[in-house]
């Protein structure tokens, strides 16, 4: 059977769309439809049915996809090995999705490791959007993602690190010394970050101990917190411990452990499932894993440094 037909089947299965499959494969939609018709006749099955959510796979399509995907992946890796991916000479362009915190805290070490051995490649950071992440990885819109939340789908994921949350505050805040109690935490004025991926777990923890998650101040960027807490002594914020460690070295801030149990955030590395340029992707994946595994992150760089006193 023509391998190109199988590639089209994989693309339609993963995107659930003839248009998206055509875009991924740099084909026209009529060409994809024609190829899918040939494949349907060969397998004597419709393979996909139109539905409200796009092209819904048939039971046969579901059953053959895993083996076809793995077989094509093996073939592509073999062909890639013939041509090879040479980091020293390649001008490949990579796209990696991550949050604001990831871009400031993890990207410097990541990019340093990449350019050490691949000086001509280019890397683009894509602001992470959890509502789109599954589609991005499935369609090949991005190569990798660094995320504290796992999207729906069967993606290769590697745990990079776990993060405990702590309470961060001005060093002159009355809660900055001694053991923080639940009552004190619930009564404190809090600054929260809209869209924080850890908010669902934090909200559940506060509800469990009889409090609400609403804050006195809501900001939209983590980088707003250091200067805000530095001038507002009554505020505190709940942030990952590595971030609190970084900020407390360059800002007049201190942190205290939370007075209740909270599952740590798990930061994972995810890779796309599409088959193109697999040897380049394998190299990038290995490089990022080595660079970030055990790296605490450079979170002290978030936000402008405080001005020295005259």
Automatic annotation (TrEMBL):
A GO MF label: DNA-binding transcription factor activity
Keyword Transferase: no
Keywords: DNA-binding, Transcription, Transcription regulation
One Pfam entry name: LysR_substrate
Annotated HTH lysR-type domain residues: 1-58
The family this protein is said to belong to: Belongs to the LysR transcriptional regulatory family.
Protein name: DNA-binding transcriptional LysR family regulator
